[in-house]
């Protein structure tokens, strides 16, 4: 089932791939092992916002929904999921674990952006991870989709 996705994949394609992945080799990505994802970095970036246009799919997966932040690379609206209180994800940044409460992604660039705890995504520095291949991206999206929600949370 690998190989059907090309870089630049659209939200609808991701949705299909995530559905297919759910029955498959689940569990063995580094995202699920100890709840840690590989090789995130801190990136200084200026985020801009723009409401999504009507022709953009509102959902990329069950729990990733369209938001107003634009991908810094391609300027498409990014999709977002929120981890519930007590259900936060942890990522490894320079060998240290950091808490992640919200996650933004661009399916066109295979990239992830997360606000640093206590900050908004637009505050200037973010956690950043970019996959080289859709084969790396799909398991991560599947994992975060399975633990993410579409419910907001009050804290930054
Ligand atoms: Zn992008």
How would you characterize the overall build of this protein?
The protein is an alpha+beta fold and 156 residues long. The chain has a domain at 29-128 and 141-149. 17% of the residues lie in helices and 29% in strands. The strands form 2 sheets. Strands 1, 2, 3, 6, 7, 8 and 9 form a 7-stranded antiparallel β-sheet that branches. A two-stranded antiparallel sheet has the order 4-5. Strand 6 and strand 7 form a beta hairpin. Helix 1 (11-23) packs across helix 2 (134-147). The chain is globular and about 35 Å long. The termini are far apart. Mean pLDDT is 86; it is low at 1-7, 26-30 and 32-36. The structure holds zinc ion. The site of zinc ion (ZN) has 7 residues, from loops.
Key terms for this structure?
single chain, 156 residues, alpha+beta, 7-stranded antiparallel beta sheet, two-stranded antiparallel sheet, 2 helices, 9 strands, 29% strand, globular, disordered N terminus, binds zinc ion
- Cα end-to-end separation: 38 Å
Largest sheet: 7 strands, antiparallel
Radius of gyration from the alpha-carbon trace, in angstroms? 14 Å
Q: How does the helix and strand content classify structurally?
A: alpha+beta
Tally of alpha and pi helices: 2
How would the global form be characterised? globular
Kindly estimate the percentage of residues that lie in beta strands according to DSSP: 25-35%
User: Could you list the spans in which at least 5 consecutive residues all have pLDDT below 50?
Assistant: 1-7, 26-30, 32-36
Order of helices and strands: HEEEEEEEEHE
What's the quaternary structure here?
single chain
Mean pLDDT: 86
**Helix content percent band:** 10-25%
Number of strands: 9
Bound molecules: zinc ion
């Amino acid at each position: 089932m690998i190989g059907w996705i090309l870089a630049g994949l659209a939200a609808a394609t991701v949705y299909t791939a995530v559905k297919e992945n759910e029955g498959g080799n689940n569990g063995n990505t580094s995202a699920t092992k100890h709840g840690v994802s590989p090789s995130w970095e801190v990136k200084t970036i200026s985020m801009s916002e723009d409401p999504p246009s009507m022709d953009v799919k509102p959902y990329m997966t069950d729990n990733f929904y369209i938001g107003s932040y634009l991908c810094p690379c391609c300027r498409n609206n990014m999709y977002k999921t929120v981890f519930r209180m007590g259900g936060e994800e942890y990522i490894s940044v320079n060998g240290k674990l950091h808490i992640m409460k919200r996650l933004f992604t661009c399916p066109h660039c295979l990239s992830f952006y997360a606000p640093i705890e206590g900050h908004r995504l637009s505050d200037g520095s973010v956690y950043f991870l970019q996959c080289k291949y859709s084969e790396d991206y799909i398991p991560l999206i599947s994992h975060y989709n399975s633990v993410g929600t579409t419910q907001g949370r009050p804290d930054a």
